[in-house]
């Protein structure tokens, strides 16, 4: 029987609804990041760099882009004879078929997958954070403490601690108390949603709580282990860790990469981040182009001006077009004379000539002010913007739009045009 | 699987000057993202040729490093695969490859064991996109013994370093001259040949028995008139990079839109080994015009009309014009580089100047970059 010391289970089924139209057609872990990557590349690369060669990726929401990206795991060296990457979608059973209804429920439904590797430890990860972390060091910590469960925690500023799930530890880093978004936090250690379980403990807890509705690690499994006197430890992580769950934080994290010496450095040789790269050719900067403070992806063709922006592979910026403080994803074409400011434009879009995007006064979003509220214009995958239109701030567009959609050629601030995909 | 492939990648050329010190010609970097042999390998795999032997000899290590996995070119299959053959000592043979025919003869067991009816022989130092399928069909239709893929030599290139041919109306090659002092034709052999596998085995054995070792002079030219040798014209971009001038020109050609569209945008694609570098980064004072930039490169100053390869660092107040900067080079502050090829992984100290005047200058500066 095969036996792996530690296997990883990566939760990648979530929609990430706070990313609005960016996740209309793709699960959040498949959203592009940093001019080359997708969010899931970070935990997957961390796994292989930490010596974990068996990873189950749990998918549910809109998995096509994710499945295509992961393939058989070649980019991460996870194409293995024994182990490697397995995509684990929910499946039908003769009785009681169900979707994944919570993080722990999803893991419970894949008990057989984990059992087949006979692991000593199971690492639970989520596919929506940007960070580099050595899970092997965390496992060493787990072993040293003879822990049953180890939770990775991040020190956050005390004044922000009430936004997080906070753990309180004793001098030996053993967790004594949990507080979910406490008004008066007793500690500033926030849970990162990364857990190492000793396999028998995980199996027992999942089985005991199998009938729990929407069974969740934070809400059910960890409290259950705590109540049963399991040894739960906090592993403090002090590196860069970014939640890119909102459009604002997603935009911010991308923009930080442009800094002269970014806090999150992708240019170090150590701890490489791997990804599926379908474009390998160089990019071309045209004779009249201007590019400064920018990340430019493979195969891009820049004839216009690009400042303060992150461009993924295969983007074309035509003559006279200007891209400022924006994120432009794969294969999008910005036609002549277009002006784009503080926008997020997803993959494979076409921006018509002389269109102006992200201009004018800020106005509250009529679609969902909780999502579209950072002064950003957000355009989903495969959208088309006709020539000569003006699009304001806090706007959302998804699908092929035509001039008739724009009253007097304008989509004012806070407006939206959702013509395809799921309602964001 | 009508054919198997042989890529001749053994050569070295003094025409490459210092650039060939580090690597085999087939391992020369091209257009930021590729090595010369990627074009031959991609042409093979894109023509559904799944079994390919690379014959290498000079500085084989440089090539082997690039070929450390065959999966980037979609080889590594149960049906077929990529084989790298360097000369080995056996009980019968302790020679290096004494020529192209000898290189193949020394691996004749490989040819004998296979079952594909045809062999495509090509060279590892040409930049082109070529579908071998229609050429094999042409070869069959003409009932040729050998088909030579020919092309019009680029006008700027030195024809005397090629084999020139004359092709008659039926496609027969009437006059094959190897590296002529005075060329009688501007049609040159691209170094790609189609031949029946059994015919190749027969010719190689005969050639070896006579103590002859060169495919072009000892087989193609020697059998002219006796064998039916046909020419097939390749009418798309083709360049042989095995001279300093043509290496420079070929890289610079990628600044032209039609060349980029042909190689980068048009399917099928050219494949290469994945390097997993981050995208290129332009800092505040970057001023880049009419240039190609590879992944992982960081730019802080002026670059014009140049090809900057991968993982290059360019410091402040530096000016790079009309130059090629190969992988991993580090260029300090206040440096001037003009009409140069900066060799890979070299370190150019701050406040220096490198200008090639009437000729392309090769910059090799093995400085210590730590402490800059």
UniProtKB/TrEMBL annotation, chain A:
GO BP field: glycogen biosynthetic process
Gene3D superfamilies to which the protein is assigned, alphabetical: Hexapeptide repeat proteins, Spore Coat Polysaccharide Biosynthesis Protein SpsA, Chain A
The reaction(s) this protein catalyses: alpha-D-glucose 1-phosphate + ATP + H(+) = ADP-alpha-D-glucose + diphosphate
Known pathway: Glycan biosynthesis; glycogen biosynthesis
Residues reported to bind alpha-D-glucose 1-phosphate: 100, 165, 180-181, 191
GO molecular function, one term: ATP binding
UniProt xrefs under InterPro entries: ADP-Glc_PPase (IPR011831), ADP_Glu_pyroP_CS (IPR005836), GlgC_bac (IPR023049), GlmU/GlgC-like_hexapep (IPR056818), NTP_transferase_dom (IPR005835), Nucleotide-diphossugar_trans (IPR029044), Trimer_LpxA-like_sf (IPR011004)
Keyword vocabulary terms for this entry: ATP-binding, Carbohydrate metabolism, Glycogen biosynthesis, Glycogen metabolism, Nucleotide-binding, Nucleotidyltransferase, Transferase
Glucose-1-phosphate adenylyltransferase/Bifunctional protein GlmU-like C-terminal hexapeptide domain segment(s): 293-365
UniProt site (Could play a key role in the communication between the regulatory and the substrate sites): 60, 99
EC id: 2.7.7.27
Nucleotidyl transferase domain location: 8-257
Family classification: Belongs to the bacterial/plant glucose-1-phosphate adenylyltransferase family.
Record PANTHER family: GLUCOSE-1-PHOSPHATE ADENYLYLTRANSFERASE, GLUCOSE-1-PHOSPHATE ADENYLYLTRANSFERASE-RELATED
HAMAP family, A to Z: GlgC (MF_00624)
Oligomeric form and interacting partners: Homotetramer.
Physiological role: Involved in the biosynthesis of ADP-glucose, a building block required for the elongation reactions to produce glycogen. Catalyzes the reaction between ATP and alpha-D-glucose 1-phosphate (G1P) to produce pyrophosphate and ADP-Glc.
Protein name in the entry: Glucose-1-phosphate adenylyltransferase
Organism taxonomic ancestry: Bacteria, Bacillati, Bacillota, Clostridia, Lachnospirales
Name of the gene this protein is made from: glgC
TrEMBL record, chain B:
Domain (Glucose-1-phosphate adenylyltransferase/Bifunctional protein GlmU-like C-terminal hexapeptide): residue spans on this chain: 278-358
Keyword Repressor part of the UniProt annotation: no
Group of enzyme by EC: transferase
One Gene Ontology MF term: ATP binding
PROSITE patterns, per the entry: ADP_GLC_PYROPHOSPH_2 (PS00809)
Stored InterPro entries: ADP-Glc_PPase (IPR011831), ADP_Glu_pyroP_CS (IPR005836), GlgDAde_trans (IPR011832), GlmU/GlgC-like_hexapep (IPR056818), NTP_transferase_dom (IPR005835), Nucleotide-diphossugar_trans (IPR029044), Trimer_LpxA-like_sf (IPR011004)
Keyword annotations of the record: ATP-binding, Carbohydrate metabolism, Glycogen biosynthesis, Glycogen metabolism, Nucleotide-binding, Nucleotidyltransferase, Transferase
Record family assignment: Belongs to the bacterial/plant glucose-1-phosphate adenylyltransferase family.
Protein name as catalogued: Glucose-1-phosphate adenylyltransferase subunit GlgD
Name of the encoding gene: glgD
């Amino acid at each position: 029987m095969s036996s792996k010391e530690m296997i990883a289970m990566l939760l990648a089924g979530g929609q990430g609804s706070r990313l609005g139209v960016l996740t209309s057609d793709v699960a959040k872990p498949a959203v592009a990041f940093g001019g080359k990557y997708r969010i899931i590349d970070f935990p997957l690369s961390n796994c292989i760099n930490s010596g974990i060669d068996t990873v189950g990726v749990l998918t549910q929401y809109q998995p096509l882009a994710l499945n295509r990206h992961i393939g058989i795991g070649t980019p991460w060296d996870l194409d293995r004879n024994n182990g490697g990457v397995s995509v684990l979608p929910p499946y039908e059973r003769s009785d009681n078929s169900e979707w994944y209804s919570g993080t722990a429920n999803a893991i419970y439904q894949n008990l057989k997958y984990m059992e087949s590797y006979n692991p000593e430890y199971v690492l639970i990860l989520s596919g929506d954070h940007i960070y580099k972390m050595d899970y092997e060091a965390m496992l060493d910590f787990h072993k040293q403490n003879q822990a049953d469960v180890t939770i990775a925690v991040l020190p956050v500023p005390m004044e922000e601690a009430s936004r997080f799930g906070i753990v309180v530890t004793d001098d030996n880093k053993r967790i004594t108390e949990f507080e979910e978004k406490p008004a008066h936090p007793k500690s500033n250690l926030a849970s990162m949603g990364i857990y190492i379980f000793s396999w028998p403990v995980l199996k027992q807890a999942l089985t005991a709580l199998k009938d729990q509705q929407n069974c969740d690690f934070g809400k059910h499994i960890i409290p259950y282990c705590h109540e049963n006197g399991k040894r739960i430890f906090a592993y403090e992580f002090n590196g860069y860790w970014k939640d890119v769950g909102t459009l604002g934080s997603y935009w911010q994290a991308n923009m930080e990469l442009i800094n002269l010496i970014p806090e999150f450095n992708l240019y170090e040789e150590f701890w490489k981040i791997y990804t599926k790269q379908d474009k390998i050719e160089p990019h071309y900067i045209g004779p009249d182009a201007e590019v400064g403070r920018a990340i430019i992806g493979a195969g891009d063709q820049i004839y216009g001006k690009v400042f303060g922006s992150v461009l993924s592979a295969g983007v074309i910026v035509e003559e006279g077009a200007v891209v400022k403080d924006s994120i432009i994803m794969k294969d999008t074409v910005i036609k002549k004379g277009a002006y784009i400011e503080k926008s997020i434009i997803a993959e494979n879009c076409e921006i018509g000539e002389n269109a102006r995007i992200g201009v004018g006064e800020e106005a509250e979003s009529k679609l969902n002010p909780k999502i579209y509220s950072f002064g950003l214009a957000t355009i989903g995958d495969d959208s088309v913007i006709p020539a000569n239109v003006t699009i304001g701030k806090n706007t959302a567009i998804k699908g092929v739009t035509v001039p008739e959609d724009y009253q007097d050629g304008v989509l004012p601030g806070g407006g939206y045009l959702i013509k395809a995909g799921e309602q964001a | 699987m009508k054919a198997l492939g042989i890529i001749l990648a053994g050569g070295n050329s003094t025409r490459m000057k210092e650039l060939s010190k580090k690597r085999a010609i087939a391992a020369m970097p091209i257009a930021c993202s590729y090595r010369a042999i990627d074009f031959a390998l991609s042409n093979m795999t894109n023509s559904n040729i799944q079994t390919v032997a690379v014959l290498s000899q000079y500085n084989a290590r440089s090539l082997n490093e690039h070929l450390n996995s065959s999966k980037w070119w979609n080889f590594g299959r149960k049906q077929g695969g990529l084989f790298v053959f360097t000369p080995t000592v056996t009980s019968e043979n302790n020679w290096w490859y004494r020529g192209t025919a000898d290189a193949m003869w020394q691996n004749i067991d490989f040819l004998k064991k296979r079952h594909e009816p045809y062999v495509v022989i090509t060279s590892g130092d040409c930049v082109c996109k070529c579908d071998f399928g229609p050429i094999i069909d042409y070869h069959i239709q003409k009932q040729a013994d050998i088909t030579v893929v020919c092309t019009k030599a680029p006008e700027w290139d030195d024809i005397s370093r090629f084999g020139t041919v004359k092709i008659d109306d039926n496609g027969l090659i009437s006059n094959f001259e190897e590296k002529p002092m005075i060329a009688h034709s501007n049609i040159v052999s691209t170094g790609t040949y189609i031949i029946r596998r059994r015919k190749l085995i027969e010719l190689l054995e005969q050639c070896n028995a006579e103590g002859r070792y060169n495919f072009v002079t000892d087989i193609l030219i020697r059998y002219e008139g006796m064998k039916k040798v046909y020419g097939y014209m390749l009418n798309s971009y083709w360049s042989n990079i095995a001279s300093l001038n043509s290496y420079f020109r070929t890289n610079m050609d990628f600044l032209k839109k039609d060349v980029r569209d042909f190689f980068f945008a048009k399917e099928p694609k050219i494949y290469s080994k994945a390097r997993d570098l981050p995208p290129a980064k332009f800092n505040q004072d970057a001023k880049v015009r009419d240039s190609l930039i590879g992944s992982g490169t960081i730019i802080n100053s002026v670059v014009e009309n140049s090809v900057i390869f991968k993982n290059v660092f360019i410091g402040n107040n530096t000016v790079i014009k009309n130059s090629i900067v190969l992988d991993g080079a580090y260029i300090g502050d206040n440096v001037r580089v003009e009409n140069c090829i900066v060799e890979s992984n070299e370190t150019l100290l701050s406040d220096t100047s490198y200008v090639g005047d009437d000729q392309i200058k090769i910059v090799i500066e093995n400085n210590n970059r730590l402490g800059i």
